[in-house]
Amino acid sequence: MAVTYRALSRLLSYPEASLQAEARLCAEAIISEGLVPDRISGSLGKLAEYVADGDLYELQAAYVDLFDRTRSVSLHLYEHVHGESRERGPAMVGLVELYRTHGLEMDVSDLPDYLPVFLEFLSILPEAEAASLIGEAAHVLEAISERLKKRQSNYRAVFGALLSISDRPADKAAVQSLLAIKDDDPSDLAALDRAWAEEPVTFGAGDARDGCSAPQQAPAAVKAQRP
Hints:
By secondary structure, the protein is mainly α.
């Protein structure tokens, strides 16, 4: 099911002209593979149209406001699990080691828990293993999905797709615990600077991957699509 995860990764990535050109192809690839239910595929089609037809500058500004300036919907998974605690560092190292055990070396300008990077990793795994890893993060994905629903964001479709693939439902108590955390104000730039004081890190070396086609073999590197 490599195509579905790669396509979801692309649709959730920072908007660029190349993504606009292939957004509809990504949605069509997901529908063709059949891993995601039809009721959610329609929402993915709307997201693809939003990305493909929108003004690029406006898309980019909206993306930054939504995902980079609002920690409660951050695409960094461990932000929701560990926050700024000391456990986050070892968790990051563990995730990088997990990638390496499957033949991946990261070459990114972002952290290994960045969701589009994680989805690229899932694209090379057996279906059951990928669904299990999604299940481990289901409470985080569900909480983000609920917050995106309140914002009427088209990006919610990606989270609905992932939750439909998960091998288990999200823990409701864990979801409510995350939702109890106060939302950020993306217009408060001073608070944003304090919250995101850490610098991005780089792991390994290799070539970037993009597009919605299935890989022919395990890739040498995974790269996030970021500005």
